[in-house]
Each structure stands twice: as C-alpha cells, then as structure tokens.
Design a protein that fits this description.
Number of strands of chain A: 11
Distance between the termini of chain A: 41 Å
Largest sheet of chain A: 6 strands, mixed
Radius of gyration of chain B: 13 Å
Low-confidence stretches of chain A: none
Radius of gyration of chain A: 14 Å
Helix content of chain B: under 10%
Structural class of chain B: mainly beta
Largest interface: A-B, 22 and 25 residues
Number of helices of chain B: 0
Number of strands of chain B: 11
Oligomer: heterodimer
Shape of chain A: globular
Shape of chain B: globular
Mean pLDDT of chain B: 93
Helix content of chain A: under 10%
Amino acid sequence: EDQVTQSPEALRLQEGESSSLNCSYTVSGLRGLFWYRQDPGKGPEFLFTLYSAGEEKEKERLKATLTKKESFLHITAPKPEDSATYLCAVHRSSNTGKLIFGQGTTLQVKP
Amino acid sequence: NAGVTQTPKFHILKTGQSMTLQCAQDMNHGYLSWYRQDPGMGLRRIHYSVAAGITDKGEVPDGYNVSRSNTEDFPLRLESAAPSQTSVYFCASRPKTGVNSYEQYFGPGTRLTVT
C-alpha cells in the first residue's frame, strides 16, 4: 500500500539552529516527490519537486534531497518566519494525478 | 494572475442543508482537484477533473458532487451536509502537460462546519 510518513510531527528550534525534516515513502513507480509549506489558515504553498534519487533542490534556507526511500528537507540557520507546517507528498505513475500526502511536520522557530 | 481562488472562506451549515463551494483558477490549468484536510488524516482527494466535461472520484467522494462546465471553474456541492463533512476544503490545479505538470497549486481553503 502506498504510504508517506513524516517525522518528527513537531519540531522546535532556536533561530539559527539548523535541522532536517524527514519524509519516508513506500510507493510503486514514483513520478515525483513534492514539498509544500502551509501557514495556519492558508493553503499549501508549493516549494520543491524532486523526480529521481540523488536530486537536490535549494531555495533560500531550504534544501530538499531525495533517495529511493526518503526525502529530507534541510533547514539551515532558520528564522522565525520559517515557522510553518511542512508537507510532503508523492505522485506515482498511472494514478491520474493523485497526490499521497504525509501528515506534516510543524516547525516552530523561536527568536 | 489570482491563481486559485475559493469562496466562501468560512461557512457554518446545519445537518441536512446543502451548499456549493466555489473554486476558480485563471492559470489555464487543465487539471483541478478538491481535497479535504482533517487533523491526523492529512489531505485527501475528493473529486478531480482532467478537462471541462470530465470528472472522476477521488479517495473520499461520498456525499459530494462536482461538475466542470469550463476550464476555469470547479464547484463542489454538498447535497445534504453531515457533521462528518466538517473540514477544511482545498481546491488545487495543475497544468495538464509540460515539464511542471505534476506540480499542484492550492487555493486558500474553505473552512466548513456542519452542526
């Protein structure tokens, strides 16, 4: 069965304290792995797409990496404005565009 | 471009009442989906459409209907609301073709409470 698991559920960091969020997946025929950011009361905002193992993408303080079993979202020297829930989702082949979402990791960065 | 817009932002319904959640996109995306987000359940797809006139069921379609008469609009209808339909609803769109065709863009959501 297709499954996406994110850990930890919640993470509290001090400003400047780097860390990583994990997204492990079990899916046949991965077409893409997506990272989204969701602020309270808002819709998920697209961050990255990763298509194959070894691929990396960066945006400001965020860096996403992908292996055959998991993806990491590395946050370098976070700031309070990075506080949000980060969602991971996978798209597998021949499923009409369905995204399988993880539960999310809620990140709080304290000044 | 406004992207994906949804109305209303909040709504309270009584059990048995009906309502329509509106979704519109102005990015000329062919593919539209409705998701619901519940605590501990993540985002789950309700219905989707690959083009005007074509709709199909997602994971959790019961109690919901959709229609797609044009490229821009994709309304979600609750015919007889139940408390189990209390949730936050998101509409999402993506291009049908192209290198970024798997990237979905979400609207701001509708928070619905059924009492």
